Amino acid sequence: MEIQRMTLTVEEVATILGVGRNKVYEAAHSGEIPTIRIGKRLLVPRAALKRLLAVGDQPLGVNDPAQPDKASR
To answer: Right CATH number for 7-59 from 3.40.210, 1.10.3470, 1.10.10, 1.10.1660?
Structure first.
């Protein structure tokens, strides 16, 4: 039985979201992406990232052309 890690590194989250590592750090420090700190490591819980993406809130300022801009509503 293979054990799946319950957290992701900042680099893994950046790859999943298709953004740079610095953007993930900025979003983590502003509270847009939930994180936990273990020692000096900053980790993102998988479940929290899945919930965040399910909401479709686009917390990183990534504009989806298929969605109207919130400011134009």
So the answer is: 1.10.1660
The pTM of this model reads 0.70
DSSP state of 19: S
Q: Which two tokens stand for residue 37?
A: 């700190």
Kindly report, residue by residue over 13-64, the tens digit of the pLDDT. 999 999 999 999 999 999 999 999 999 999 999 999 999 888 875 555 554 4
54-to-38, 42, 51, 59 alpha-carbon distances in Å = 26, 22, 5, 12
